[in-house]
Structures are given as structure tokens and as C-alpha cells.
Amino acid sequence: SSLEGIFHVIATVGAMTDAEDEAVGLVEILRERLADVEEVVEERRDEGHRAPRVVALDWLDPPYSAGLWVPEQVRRAGGWEVLAVDGEPSARTTWDAVVDVDPEMILLLPCGMHLAEAVRSWRTSPRSPAWEELQAVRRGQVFVLDGSAYFSRPGPRAIEGIELLAEIFDPAAFVDLAPAGSWVPVA
């Protein structure tokens, strides 16, 4: 339910499969990559860069706020998740709830869907009548992400998800961190 939990599972599986050294080495590399992102996020905040107010949805019809480690990914990448709670399961919500918090960015990362499927799902999903009034929509800050690869599974690619989010949140500070084909703007 957290990044620390993911690191622990990697180390445990390594120990159980006689690959403890490799697992510990992988966790060290992942922690270093995470620290690199967090260092830049902190420097940018010190320079006055403000964390965007974000809603991450891991299902679209009906909408579900992202849960477990995803709010932590958002925070560590420099954003502020305003609908979900760290470590809690995804929770059914409504488009009205999204309208109520009026995020500056909306991240659509449907659970288990790769990018192309997530985009198709987004195109056919119903939205609130107030959709066009949302800050994120007016500013063109709605993104579909490859949820299956970087957000739905508790593994090493969760760190790539943080790097991807950092690039979306602050493209001036983070360049070419997001894996190719991992996200697209939709509004």
C-alpha cells in the first residue's frame, strides 16, 4: 500500500528466491532514483514552484480516486493529490466530487489499462455537465497515463511512474524522464 511496502516486497521475494543481493541492489537503485526526483522537487519548491492540485483517477465509469501508493507517487513527484488518501484503497467517487475540488490537473490512469486502451475508455466515458468549467480542462491539463505499467502494479516501475509524473508536473525541471508512449494530453 506504499512505496516502502513495494521495496520491502522486492527484498523479501529476493530473499525467498536466492536472489537477495540482486533484490537489495535493485531497491538501492530505486531509492537513489526516487531521491534524485525528490531533490529536484525540493529545490524547485525552494525557488517558488508550487505543487499542482491534482486528481488522479484509476477508473473512469464510475470514477474511482486512485489509492494505495498512487497518492504517494503524486506527492513525491511534486504534486498535491486532493481527492485520494495515501495508503487507502481506491474509492468510488463522482464527477461532482471532482468538480467540487476543481483540480489544476487531472490524471486518468485506469487500473490495468495500457495507454491506448485507457484513451479509448476515456473517449467513451461519461463526464459531468460541469466538465468544461474545471480548471484542469480550461488549462489543457488533463492527461491519460499508462496505468497498467506505472501505477496499478506494486513493482519497480512505480518509480518510473514518479519520474513520469514529475515530468508532467514540472516539465522545465524534468526532461525526458517519462518512458516513451507512457502518457498523452487529452484536454
Q: Give the DSSP E fraction (strand runs of 2 or more residues).
A: 5-15%
Mean pLDDT: 94
Shape, principal axes of CA atoms = globular
Largest sheet: 7 strands, mixed
Fraction of residues in H or I helices: 40-55%
**Measured on Cα atoms, how large is the radius of gyration?**
16 Å
Secondary-structure element pattern, one letter each: HHEEHEEHEHHEHHE
- Compute the number of helices: 8
Spatial separation of the terminal alpha carbons:
30 Å
Structural class, please?
alpha/beta
Could you give the count of β-strands? 7
List unreliable stretches of 5+ residues.
none
Can you put this structure into words, describing what you see?
The structure is a single chain. With 187 residues, the protein is of the alpha/beta class. Helix content is 46%, strand content 14%. It contains 8 helices and 7 strands; from the N terminus they run H-H-E-E-H-E-E-H-E-H-H-E-H-H-E. Helix 1 (3-16) runs antiparallel to helix 2 and helix 2 runs parallel beside helix 8 (157-169). The longest helix is centred in the first third of the chain and has 27 residues, at 20-46.
